[in-house]
Amino acid sequence: MGWIRHTAYKVLGSNCYGCEKPLQGETNPIWCPECLDLLKPVCRCTTCGTLMEMPVERCGGCVSDPPPWDRLYCVGEYNQPLSQYVQGLKYRRQVWHARELASLLAERLTSPALILLPIPLHWRRQSVRGFNQSDYLAEYLSQSLKEEVGVESQVWSKAIKRIKVTKTQMGLNRRQRLVNLKHAFSLSPRYLARIQNQPHIALVDDVVTTGSTVAEVCLLLREQGVKRIDVYCICRASRPIS
Fold it and tell me: Given this model, what pLDDT does residue 239 score?
């Protein structure tokens, strides 16, 4: 279904992927200029990804309380149209959105990691949902990087295990999220030797709000001597999602 939809937009190019507006001679075969304008990069802290009046390497928060990763890349804020695509992917099984979202994300990456680790769901939650949206994003991101910039990144979807059933993070503040996620993850013993002392690994997730989820995984990777850790996400939410 996703491949058919993607190919139809690429080949036929009749309507914008975002707003369904007819496309007439646009240079991008999928998006109209108005939707591309909504998705254009904005000023952020390159370390944590929060919105800024001008781009900075490290904002005041990153200086006083540095995150355990090195750089965060995102497509945009958790606003329309991105929010509707993420919700459709996550809650309505519209997995075809993952391809286009991953393609947009690939355009933002300046030096892509060769190893991509999707943030996992607990097996109980995944059995109910039927899939992990971060797995789809990581796989399509790997494909986009190979097709668009010639970088062959590996996806290790089983490297991280979610070993604790946690409450949903929606509506929790940063402190509550940190407590909720304490000891929620582990690294698969099968991957430990391969992860140790890796020069560059990226974590892939759909939405980063406070960063507590990816931070918990980063600490595990730092313990294994990983030199550089980036975070790749579709949305960087400036405020907790309610």
Answer: 55
| 141 in Cβ contact with 204 (< 8 Å) | yes
DSSP state of 200: E
pLDDT averaged over 10-residue windows placed end to end, the chain, 242 residues: 51 70 69 84 95 94 96 94 91 90 94 97 82 95 94 97 70 56 86 97 95 94 98 84 42
Residue pair 2/133 in contact by the 8 Å Cβ criterion? no
Cβ partners under 8 Å of residue 51, min gap 6: 42, 43, 44, 77, 238
Residues counted in the chain: 242
| Domains of the chain, start order | 1-38 (no CATH), 48-236 (3.40.50)
Q: What does DSSP say about strands 228-236 and 200-208: parallel, antiparallel, or unpaired?
A: parallel
Taking the C-alpha atoms of residue 113 and residue 132, their distance in angstroms, rounded to an integer, is 21
Strands 160-162 and 200-208: unpaired
Tokens 């295990």 locate to 161
